[in-house]
Prior knowledge:
The complex is a heterodimer of chains A (510) and B (216).
Chain A: H1 2-14, H2 20-27, H3 43-68, E1 90-93, H4 97-109, E2 118-122, E3 138-139, H5 146-160, H6 162-166, E4 183-187, H7 192-205, E5 209-212, H8 214-220, E6 231-235, E7 240-241, H9 244-258, E8 261-264, E9 266-278, E10 284-296, E11 303-307, E12 310-313, H10 319-324, E13 343-354, E14 365-367, E15 372-377, E16 382-387, H11 404-418, E17 426-438, E18 445-448, E19 455-459, H12 465-482, H13 496-499
Parallel strand pairs in A: 1-2, 1-12, 2-8, 4-14, 12-19
Antiparallel strand pairs in A: 3-7, 4-6, 5-6, 9-10, 10-11, 13-16, 13-17, 14-15, 15-16, 18-19
Helix pairs in contact in A: 4-9, 4-12, 5-12
Chain B: H1 2-5, H2 13-24, H3 26-54, E1 56-59, E2 86-90, E3 112-114, H4 123-128, E4 138-140, H5 149-152, E5 163-165, H6 175-185, E6 190-192, H7 200-215
Helix pairs in contact in B: 2-3
Protein name (chain A): FAD-dependent oxidoreductase domain-containing protein 1
InterPro entries (chain A): FAD-dep_OxRdtase, FAD/NAD-bd_sf
GO cellular component, one term (chain A): mitochondrial inner membrane
Amino acid sequence: MSAWRRLPGKARSAAGLLTSTRVTERLWDPRAPSTCSQSLSTSGSSRNDYLKDLQAQLAGMRKKAADVLPSSSWTSLEINTGLPPKRVDIVIVGGGVVGWSIAYWLKKKEKVRGGVQVIVVERDPTYSQASTVLSAGGIRQQFSLPENIHLSLASADFMRNINEHLGVLNEEPVDLQFNHSGYLFLANEKVAHIMEENYNTQRLAGAKVSLLSPTQLKERFPWIDTDGVALASYGLENEGWFDPWTLLNAFKRKAISLGVTQFCGEVTGFKSITNVLTTVDDEKVGIKRIKSVKVQMPNSLQYQPVDCAIVVNAAGAFSGKLAEMLGIGLGPKDSFSGIPVPVEPRKRYVYVVHCPDGPGLDTPFLIDYSGVYFRREGLGGTYITGVSPEEGEEPDTSDLEVDHQFFQDKVWPKLASRVPAFEKLKVSSAWAGFYDYNTFDQNGIIGVHPLINNMYFATGFSGHGLQHSPAVGRAVAELILDGSFQTLDLNNFGFKRILEQEPMLERNIV
Amino acid sequence: RQWISSSASRPPLVSRLLLFLTQRFYDVEMLISWKSNFKRSLGLVWSCCDVWVSSDFRFVGQSDWFRANRRGKFSWDFLQFKNTPLEEVDMSHTLVNYTGLTNLATQKQLRTLRLRGCPEIDDWFLARLHIFQDSLEELDISECPRITTGGLVALRNLKGLKLLNVSSLPRVSSPGLVIILLEEMLPQCQITAEGYNHSLRGADEEDMESRKSLNV
């Protein structure tokens, strides 16, 4: 309405103008919705237009003539400047938060400036399917394995001093928008003893967690229906959620300022040499060593073979597929090469709901024993919620379409029974993302594969890659540059457990 | 870095020269980062001494405060009370930060903590205050420039809090709403929050700014 009222005024003022370009500029008011551009030129101005066009064309011809002369940098061959260099030291496959964290730490730990040349290859610069940016962004120390607790504590420590680590001179300081709300796990009778054991492990490792009985829980959070709850575990410090996109960009910005380069392309193959060794049982084992990585350019058949010394597999949900290109998992069933890297994408839905009577500012990241979780988002009564599907009912992972029926059937009933205020809510939006799910034991895989000499894996975190990314990046950088873990001993996360089929289960997976 | 935001006056020649050199030479960049690190670590060292000298405290059972007098001298009488727990501490306008809180961690009977205008206090510091969750009754964190809404959420653990002063926190957006939510979160607590512009005009201008930046 207001746009129409404003139009006569503009027409009056524009009548004095001759050229059509100036008129459109005046009519385009950022505050108004887009109005149709009217050209108010007269016949005198059309002659002016013709002369101006002629001038522009002559200038163009002059420029082309100057370009053809030898001293200019124009060539008729299209040179693709997006190709990675022919030779680098370390190629990191995957530009998510884990990949960029490793890139940053590699550059931070190199002893000589320019000591390692690192490139990061990411096939989708819009991050439309990347797990990092689709994550709920939580960080917690409530795990059952001490290694996971230490990883989370180290990452929280990193985030507390994030500007010391990732601050770039003369750029804006990093603001993760960290909400220190804590996680609240609820346990029923059957799993209460596991929760108590976990509590002791967590306390021993230095996490600040407290246990609450059902009465204390009801007193603390009156909006919870404590029916069926035997014990609750509440994080006091270093737990909450933050903005994953900010963390990713902070790592990226700092790593690029330290000399890492990013390339947009997909890794479609490797060139490797195989050393055949004989075991004590007189079996022949082929140990591969990657010589070069084939990086294919987006939307094109053009590719660049990048010679490298080390490849880091930080491809997240697609790491298993990447390892298959080297033949892992394609060998005979009873040998090591027959065991695939057990990481596959698993689709998870996150629903954004609005409930005006919902819990207030101190809403923790609540995780019920049935698997349903929710957390507050912003200050306006919005929450995000979801649940991990049952083992046999995993949704199809060929796309990231959201199944809204899933919310009605699986999420809402459990949510409303735990928090009665959520009986009246409205779903505002939803999205889906992939977990880089480790089908073996739902814990990260960090280390070298025994059959490939120079491929380092940092994948399979099954939903807690983001919160461990700073510490994992440091660990992998130590492994590569120092030869072994220095600050945190993550040897238990290596491939040994997979090849010996001894799972190291994390009992607190959401 | 305030001179970056004010476009009115050009920064001094020395700063411009340093910026020019920093962008072209790695050595200058390293020297500048050393200088800022040195300042910060020096700040930490001074803050330990500074906090000690400029903070005021009161012990349990005593009614007198130990403060530096007008000339900055501090009486050493407090050493008589070495084993008595502290009850009230006033560290306003000091450089105390997260690591500095370790010094106070053993004081389980701390009732009042005044941290007005402390520039190094951020959200992580507030998260660590849970160590006083049983005893703390009064907390003053007004005018601290680094506290945001995410940190105010961390006060959820201080269930015994009776007085809270969150005036003039520059980085808290939509303060009116945050204060209402804080009052709901801590029902027994009386919250003082002055120094905020609650008028709608302020919100309108913010809206224009954000829309302009989207169009650009």
